[in-house]
Specification:
Shape: rod-shaped
Structural class: alpha+beta
Radius of gyration: 47 Å
Strand order of the largest sheet: 1-2-3-5-4
Number of strands: 5
Order of helices and strands: HHHHHHHHHHHEHEEHEE
Mean pLDDT: 77
CATH class of the largest domain: Alpha Beta
Oligomer: single chain
């Protein structure tokens, strides 16, 4: 589990006031003590020049030097105090560290430039005055040397720049580096959050894909296997009824049951064989969770093609098509049902999904007739229109004299048909008729294949 910048900020201890780390507090305390000692020693000379008691000058120096403790919290205060005590010739360390802290802080640059300029001017003036006094005392016997000329101002300028420029420039560099690191850290945190969101979305998409493929497999197995087994049960019941009365018909029914059983076994072997296959290692694992969808998708494709042998379609077709409807209807006729196929309009090739969906709707509707309306007359209508293809399976009331095969019903047939049709943007309607039968209708938008 990754830790974002917000999490890292939340665990930083706040027991050191404005210091985020213990070593920062130790460093500032050390600098404050050194600055206080320096200013205390310099306070002796300040007290002598100002005709003050020496202890008062030392105490004043200690108080002034200890201001360096707050350089991280109030850098402007440190710089202002260092400027104020510049005429007293004390606080050199405080002035250097104060300028560095000010330049490295988040203080607006206009305030930094103004305070740096004030500090430079104050140090320059004091340096010029002090050097003139020193030069005048050292060269009092040399009338040819004038300290008020170019020597004192130039040397004072170099000394002032040497004291103020390095800490100021170094502080600006450190401040810019800190801001850069903070921006990079924030960017890394935002990238971590985006990656986390992408991973969550990928997992959701993988779960949705797995669920979609499971639904597709269940739908295909229901359409492919349930239809075949239903016909086998119907033929077995007919075989039982005519076994003693009409041996020849019993032989034909037994042959049909055997053929359908072999077809059902072939379809089941294809599906189970795909389930045992390992996913291809050459596929790119973009998201690990999605790789588990590969065998499910393969099973769905295998299930879609499994009914091909029973439907009479070619192996190259990739699944059942509308041309196989006649064979499908003939199988129901052989099972003893009275089925009429009516085709309206001129047939033409459609997309593979459209033809497979139309075939499955008719197949499942005929299966429901065998389950719930034994002996009923059935009319299958297929209409080829300009931009759509429509199919309708309508059966009348069941024949009371017909033997009921007592086929179980899971209640998923109509649901599966509706899912297939709506997924392609079509319309699905089903319900009982006034005559006591049942009607299933579906309309699919089509794209003509040239």
């Amino acid at each position: 589990m990754t830790t974002t910048g917000a999490d890292r900020d939340a665990v930083v201890p706040r027991t050191w006031w404005w210091w985020g780390r213990r070593r920062s507090a130790v460093l500032d305390v050390t600098l404050g003590v050194v600055s206080a000692l320096e200013c205390g020693l310099e306070g002796v000379g300040f007290a002598q020049q100002a005709s003050l008691p020496v202890p008062a000058g030392v105490l004043f120096g200690l108080l002034v030097g200890s201001v360096l403790l707050v350089r991280r919290r109030w850098p402007i205060t440190v710089v202002l105090v260092s400027i104020a005590v510049t005429p007293a010739e004390m606080g050199y360390l405080m002035g250097i560290v104060g300028l560095y802290s000010l330049a490295a802080s988040e203080v607006p640059r206009r305030f930094t430039a103004a305070l740096a300029g004030m500090s430079t001017v104050a140090v320059y003036i004091v340096t010029v005055v002090r050097m003139r006094q020193d030069v005048a005392q050292a060269d009092a016997g040399r009338p040819d040397f004038d300290p008020s000329g170019w020597y004192v101002p130039v040397v004072s300028l170099f000394m002032t720049l040497g004291l103020n420029a390095p800490p100021l420039l170094f502080g600006l560099y450190i401040g810019a580096r800190r801001r850069l690191m903070e921006s990079l850290r924030e960017r890394a945190d935002s990238l971590e959050q985006e990656l986390s969101l992408l991973a969550d979305r990928a997992e959701q998409r993988a779960q949705w894909a797995r669920q979609e493929e499971r639904t597709r497999i269940a739908r295909e197995m229901h359409d492919v296997v349930a239809h075949r087994v239903s016909l086998m049960v119907v033929h077995a019941a007919a075989l039982q009824a005519v076994a003693l009365k009409d041996p020849q018909k019993a032989v034909r029914n037994a042959a049909l049951v055997g053929d359908m059983g072999r077809q059902a076994l072939t379809e089941l072997r294809e599906m189970l064989g795909v389930l045992r296959e390992e996913p291809s290692s050459s596929s790119s694992p973009v998201v690990p969770a999605v790789s588990s969808v590969v065998p499910l998708a393969a099973v769905g494709r295998a299930a879609a093609a499994a009914a091909e042998a029973a439907a009479g379609g070619g192996a190259e077709a990739g699944g059942p098509c509308l041309d196989a409807l006649e064979a499908l209807v003939e199988q129901s006729r052989q099972a003893g049902a009275v089925v009429e196929l009516v085709v309206l309009g001129e047939g033409r090739p459609y997309g593979a999904e459209v033809e497979q969906t139309a075939y499955r709707v008719v197949q499942e509707a005929l299966t429901n007739v065998h389950k719930h309306a034994a002996g009923a007359k059935v009319v299958v209508r297929l209409a080829h229109r300009e931009a759509e293809v429509a199919m309708q399976v309508e059966n009348g009331p069941s024949d009371a004299t017909a033997a009921d095969a007592h086929l179980p019903s899971g209640g998923n047939g109509l649901v599966g048909m509706r899912e297939r049709v709506t997924r392609l943007g079509g319309v699905f309607v089903s319900g009982p008729t006034d005559a006591g039968g049942f009607r299933v209708s579906a309309v699919l938008p089509v794209a003509v294949v040239s």
